[in-house]
Amino acid sequence: QVQLVESGGGVVQPGGSLRLSCAASGFTFSTAFMRWYRQAPAKVREWVATISGTGGFTDYADSVKGRFTISSDYAKNTVYPQMNSLKPDETAVYYCNWHDNWGQGTPVTVSS
């Protein structure tokens, strides 16, 4: 059974940083491509970043390039998006994804 468990969300001031995590189980992590999405209130879910299980491949949405860095820990089957210089309009629920499997999401609020 596939499980994706996100954590690390919270409240941060504009310009601040947060590190999220997604612990994965139930599939072969090393050959997987994990994706992160976010959904702001009243908006459609948007793709944020992709990483391979080994960390050898990463890709980012233009809106977060240079500010977000995603990494993976193969031994822990966990991926970590490091989000820096956060903006108020990045307030959203952040979700981990593998194929048609989704985590429960972790909320991020960027506010002073």
The largest sheet is:
7 strands, mixed
Mean pLDDT: 95
In angstroms, what separates the terminal alpha carbons?
Answer: 40 Å
Uncertain spans, ≥5 residues at pLDDT below 50?
A: none
Contiguous helical run count: 0
How would the global form be characterised? globular
Order of helices and strands: EEEEEEEEEEEE
Helix percent band? under 10%
Structural class: mainly beta
> From the structure provided, what is the oligomeric state, counting identical versus distinct chains?
single chain
- Strand percentage, roughly? over 45%
According to DSSP, the number of beta strands is: 12
Instruction: Determine Rg (CA atoms, Å).
Output: 13 Å
Textual characterization of the structure:
The chain has 112 residues and is mainly beta. The mean pLDDT is 95. Strands 2, 5, 6, 7, 10, 11 and 12 form a 7-stranded mixed beta sheet that branches. Strands 1, 3, 4, 8 and 9 form a 5-stranded antiparallel beta sheet that branches. It is 0% helix and 52% strand.
Give structural attributes.
112 residues; single chain; 5-stranded antiparallel sheet; mainly beta; 52% strand
Helix and strand arrangement:
Blueprint: E1 3-7, E2 10-12, E3 18-19, E4 21-25, E5 33-39, E6 46-52, E7 58-60, E8 68-73, E9 78-83, E10 92-98, E11 101-102, E12 106-110
Parallel strand pairs: 2-12
Antiparallel strand pairs: 1-4, 3-9, 4-9, 5-6, 5-10, 6-7, 8-9, 10-11, 10-12
What is the structure about, briefly put?
By secondary structure, this protein is mostly beta strands. Helices cover 0% and strands 52% of the residues. The protein has strands at residues 3-7, 10-12, 18-19, 21-25, 33-39, 46-52, 58-60, 68-73, 78-83, 92-98, 101-102, 106-110.
